[in-house]
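Model the whole thing, not chain by chain.
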Amino acid sequence: MARKKNRMSQEVNAGSMADIAFLLLIFFLVTTTIASDKGILNILPPKLDPNQPPPEIDKNERNIFTILINANDDLLVEGDYRESADGLDQEVKEFVLNFAIPDEETLPLYNSLPASLKAVARRDPESSDNPKEAVVSIKTNRGTSYDKYLEVFDMVKKGYFDIYAERVGLDTDEYRALTGKDDAEKALQDRGKEGIPMAISIAEPDKIGS
Amino acid sequence: MGKFGKKNKVSENIPTSALPDIIFMLLFFFMVTTVLRDQEILVEQKLPQATQLQKLQKKSLISYIFIGKPKNTALYGTEPRVQANDALLNTADIVQWVNRERDALAEADRGLITISMKADRDVKMGPISDVQTELREADARRVLYASVGKVLNN
């Protein structure tokens, strides 16, 4: 009769289950490569039409923040020599939000900024007129290391992302984590970017001195 | 001294009935995160570090291109080479490769093709810009510079 069965022996012997699971675990541990689809997004400019002359650029020098990197990975930022890219994000931020000559289009933009970003605007006549005009230009040499280029590009991006994040009251990391997968996230993203285009120009590297 | 001998024998073994569950949990974690490598990388890959990493929403739009010094230097030399799919490409063949990758996508997504550029950190800008010129030629202008995270020191 079933009643007579010993209660202790009713359990299935699961002692070797751990061993089996361990074996599988070790297999997956060895074969796994945690997917790293992360990176820095860059939109390249469209290709030039050979039949048309390259577009004339009539931008004022003050509206372009130039970063040159030579073959020794030295930097020349707005004419000043330096060795490391530290602090470049802050300079980009100050350059973009300079508002030397805010026109009727960008004055409301300035007024809509939070106080912490308004404080960045120095209204220096030597720097950018307004965020719409501001362009950050990175020019490398063919001998520049990719590592250094990416470090500089990274810092410039950080400058922009700091502005966007501060506008919507988020942390920079939180802002970057927005993927725009639903409307609320998309709205936040757009509100951060509105009126301040991320204008990073990557110039064709030159061949001299590499 | 005699106290040790007095211990009860029954309570000495640790209960291990929960162990399989814990192991299974770990196992499932690794099973879910694992991606079995479907291609052999022929070039060196030490990705650079960066802080402003972004993740892309749609993985299917990404095509990978690898740039670095060939691992088999006897066969391919020491100059940085470009690998796409399983084979090393010449720079001039990139346009063709991009077009093939783009044709594999759904029609609505073709304009959004993103090239994840997995370049070794020791590569110089010369080869990188050559590849970028070809990508512009192929009108695949969304480029993701693949990199690993770095903790910002400030």
